[in-house]
UniProtKB/TrEMBL annotation:
Main subcellular location: membrane
Transcription regulation keyword on record: no
Keywords: Membrane, Transmembrane, Transmembrane helix
Entries under Gene3D superfamilies matching the protein: Nucleic acid-binding proteins
Membrane topology per record: Multi-pass membrane protein
Residues annotated as domain NfeD-like C-terminal: 83-138
Parts of the chain that traverse the membrane: 7-40, 46-64
The protein's name: NfeD-like C-terminal domain-containing protein
Cellular localisation: Membrane
Length: 145
């Protein structure tokens, strides 16, 4: 397989991971991988140049866009996708017990979820916090906030 294709695959994987986390860090790495793919098309035998140009692009984007992303997150009307889930109501689809995650449905989406309590199928839940792909939930009307 050619290096440009490998760099594009890496860039695509990083872009998908970015869409799951909304951190902007993986986006810059993804763009760096795409730049490395473009360099690989121009000079296919110079792997070091491909890696250095992609790494340098990711580093420059990270350093120079950090103030921009901070300003964007603090702007009026910005809603953090991670915090937006907190407080929403859902229902248990697959039972949850402490140390054994289950599945909950919040809105129209299914999520992996953990809980400090044992929750049975069809129990109503409230989202307490959200990691990247796993929710922490409690029984609706539970005492912990």
């Amino acid at each position: 397989m050619e290096w440009w294709a490998i760099w594009l695959i890496i860039g695509g994987i990083l872009l998908i991971a970015e869409m799951l986390t909304f951190t902007f860090y993986l986006l810059w790495l993804s763009i760096g991988a795409v730049i490395a793919a473009l360099i690989a098309l121009l000079v296919p035998d110079w792997f070091a140049l491909q890696a250095l140009s992609g790494g340098a692009a990711a580093l420059v984007l990270t350093v120079f866009t950090k103030p921009l992303t901070r300003r964007f997150r603090e702007s009026r009307g910005y809603r953090d996708a991670i915090q937006e889930m907190v407080g929403k109501q859902g229902v248990v689809v697959e039972s949850i017990s402490p140390g054994s995650p289950g599945i909950v449905k919040v809105g129209n989406e299914l999520w992996s979820a953990t809980s400090m309590d044992t929750l049975s199928k069809d129990d109503s839940i409230r989202v307490i916090s959200r990691g990247t792909t796993v929710l922490e939930v409690q029984e609706w009307g539970g005492s912990r906030e």
